[in-house]
Amino acid sequence: MKKLLQSLFILLFVASTALAQNRTVTGTVTSKDDGQPIPGVSVKVKGTNIGISTSANGKFSLSVPSNVKTLEISSVGFATQTVTIGASNVVNVALAAGANELGEVIVVAYGTAKKSTFTGSASTVKAELIENRSISSITKALDGAVAGVTSTLGSGQPGSNAGIVIRGFGSINASSNPLYVVDGVPFDGDLNSINPNDVESLTVLKDASAASLYGSRAANGVVMITTKAGKNTQGKINVNFKANVGVASRAIKRYDVMDTKEWLEHVFLAYKNDEIFAKGVPENLAGTNALNRMKGTVDPIFGINEQYNPYNVPVSQLIDPITGALNPNATLRWDENWLDEAMASNPLRQEYQFDASGGSEKMKTLVSFNALKENGLLKTTSFDRVTGRVNSDLTPTDWFKTSLSANFSKGTSNLLNSTGTSTSNVWYSAEQMAPIYPIWTRDASGNQVLDANGNRQFDYGLNRASGAQQNFNSNATLYDDKYFDLRDNAGARAGIEFNTRDAKYGALSGFAFAVNLGADYTGRSYTYYYNPYFGNAAGSGRLNKEWNKTLSYTFNQLLTWNRSFNKHSVDVLAGHESYKYRFNLLSGQKTGFPFGGLYELAPGSTIADANSYENNETLESYFSRLQYN
Known about the structure:
By secondary structure, the chain is mostly beta strands. It folds into 4 domains: 2-98, Carboxypeptidase-like, regulatory domain (Immunoglobulin-like); 100-247, TonB-dependent receptor, plug domain (Ferric Hydroxamate Uptake Protein, Chain A, domain 1, Beta Complex), CATH 2.170.130; 260-333, no CATH class; 348-415 and 468-628, TonB-dependent receptor, beta-barrel domain (Maltoporin, Chain A), CATH 2.40.170.20. Helix content is 13%, strand content 40%. It is built from 9 helices and 26 strands. It has helices at 2-20, 99-102, 127-131, 208-211, 260-278, 283-295, 338-342, 426-432, 474-480; strands at residues 22-31, 42-45, 51-53, 59-65, 70-74, 81-84, 93-95, 105-108, 111-114, 122-126, 149-152, 163-166, 179-182, 185-186, 199-205, 222-227, 237-247, 348-359, 363-375, 382-397, 400-414, 482-499, 511-530, 542-565, 568-591, 606-628. It has a 10-stranded antiparallel sheet. Strand 19 and strand 20 form a beta hairpin. The longest helix is centred in the N-terminal third of the chain and has 19 residues, at 2-20. The chain is globular, with a radius of gyration of 32 Å.
């Protein structure tokens, strides 16, 4: 006994010693510039591979040996810091921008600035980070890349934009969308029309001082998008081609749902408990009553004549009324998973990028072409897009420069036309549907019933219980209903600049006068089709058609003066901008279609809705800025 106690004491001592060899260090890493948390920062024990990355809110928790005294904190764009672990085991670090970053020139409102002298709050995402991500929308490049920016997945449909919120929501009811500026001109086009491979950098202006020149339009921050330009290649042409092929997968883990056996046993238990506790029925009778209620004659769970009984034994013998367990002799006649049936298996994503660039000191040009085909996680959903862009700069003299860029895109989306808790939303309905109900029509033996062409037929649940989506099959809507979204986009930017920046101009040196013109056009066509047989428009069908177009112009003139005197630097800007915006909409809706598959309004017999309108906006802005360093 004494030896046993000694052995136990030694084991406990060894265990406690082992536990004492490690300690947990926690903390938060923020940016020294603006105090915002930085995600993805490397926190590791110096000289080892023991480490972790900070979370989306800049926090970390790391288990380290007790003899470790220092941590190394590093992140792209910031100076690496070595910090000492105190007795409290809490390490909070404010990272300063790296030396290279301080010398970097960033894009700001109506110009550029050195990061070392810029007093506002801004963050930049460069082309290297964008090109390494398989994204269809430029907004998704900001996801997890910029402190103080919250990115949401949006609808999650193929080709959808991410929602961007800069430094929180400013209003409950008003829009939280930032202002987007492309190559110096506010952008009103479709963000999906911008090929991420064409983007040189994204600069997020976060605070009022950084975005003030844009006035009220910048209340939610500004995202400056700079597209790639040609480079001086001494007359040579650089040609690049890139092909990306991959598959998509669900990012969020599926819910753990009950199978058919578990569902039936739980439904029986619910009925039995209701009999006992709500109606006062003795327990030895409650089970039989519960089975009778499940079988029912009014709104039966299993439908008329037990049509939806998935087992080969009658409902009266399906569950032991005493134990509540499923009959061990019962065999499933069908076992279908609604969500599995709706989801595509490894949906393919294909992207092909071609660009050619080159030029000389006086003229530089870039031409880009991109084709994207992205299939969705739900069957029949997809996004196709073709984009093209030309950027050209001409500098014939040191005092004159002109630039021209033009782009186009054409996109087609086949999407799910319902979201939220609508029964038409397959993601929602498929998870809610009881597993006893089949997706496909079954005969009395449980075999699938085929049509004259040998195809499976959807079961629309005409005899389902009232709470089980009678006369509806959400999976069928992927095929029987349609939602098309066609988009045509075009944009252009043109600018000329006269400058006397060279010191040879003497007292007139430092001046620059620029004139810029930008235009964006977006045309969209929507088709919402609901079949006349089952579901939302059973009996007559319904078709909605909508056409809208957006056209905007921006014309600005900028006069700047920048001079340095010994240790003093002065930068003055004065400008005017004229902005015009027009939106037109035409829509119509008809019902009373003689049969399905008609995607034009003419065959419909009844006009359900017709509408059209036009919105116009005009903005005249005068602004100035004085910077001294």
